[in-house]
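Dissemination and training. As part of the outreach component of the grant, students in the summer workshop were shown how a complex can be specified as a set of sequence lines and then modelled as a single object. The example used during the hands-on session is reproduced here so that future cohorts can follow it. Participants entered these lines:
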Amino acid sequence: MPDVHKSAFVAVIGRPSAGKSTLINSICGEKVAIVSPVPQTTRNTVRGIKTGEGYQLVFLDTPGLHDSEKAMNRRLRDVALHALKDADLVLYVMDTTRAPGPEEEAIVTRVAPFAGKTLVAVNKIDARESDIARARLYLAGHMSGARAFDISAEKGTGVEALVAALAETAPPGPAYYPAEFYTDQEPVFRIAETIREKVFLHTRNEVPHAVYVEYKSHHMLDDGTLVYEGDLIVERETQKGILIGAGGSMIRQIREEAEHDLGEIFDYAVRLSIKVRVVPDWKKDDRILKKLIQ
Ligand SMILES: Nc1nc2c(ncn2[C@@H]2O[C@H](COP(=O)(O)OP(=O)(O)OP(=O)(O)O)[C@@H](O)[C@H]2O)c(=O)[nH]1
Ligand SMILES: [Mg+2]
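and obtained this result:
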């Protein structure tokens, strides 16, 4: 056991769909952050906390870095880069199933100035299309100083060794959260995120990116059930139709799956009341983007 307590804020950075949120969930042993195959699932610097003997690591999940000048992408990128700058350590997640193209190049350029505080997770080594040698070669050419770990965030392979290395590299510092905390998110935020995850899992093309959840109210029933009321905001009428589905089938599926998951996250039942509403072009509204993405 180390004599000095160590702690660090660890910014988890990488291209969209690299597996950042999956890795944080795996490390924390709980569903901290939502996950989907759709790039740009994460929109906030959600915190996942891992407390071990003599250390505490606070992971900051970040939106996948993607160079695009659309207002929403710019906001997502600013949030991720802010976390990168402020963190004690950086965990750069690479996806070994995809060839490192211009997107990886742009990320490695942003992370390189922080190479001294960066560890690399070479992820998805379980996948059939995984090419570890290609990722390692790329790292050797672009970030030779950083220690890299082959992992599968999904299967948990190599994750323990990675956490041990992070804990060892962390500077001396206090525990910022009580040991039993694995996240600092408010319940209403986690509810909105869980609803959004179901939208990401069941819709296609531009629809997942056209959605956000607007909190309206919540209250507790006598039997301990939490009732949450919110609006699922979309940009256009056609998207509203898709989200409602034939005879309300889509919104029902989203609601039921979210209620199921939330029942596992919390020690009380959650009942959702969700209406779909159009706010034209909300993605171009800086005020909404600032409130939503932080
Ligand atoms: N085979 C395999 N799939 C993985 C692994 N880690 C993540 N995935 C999958 O990759 C997809 C993206 O995972 P996320 O954790 O949402 O990725 P992310 O980096 O947080 O993505 P954004 O939030 O969009 O930037 C999901 O379908 C995951 O199930 C892994 O170790 N192996
Ligand atoms: Mg994510």
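Residues 5 and 54 are 5 Å apart (CA to CA). Students were then asked to discuss how this feature might be tested experimentally.
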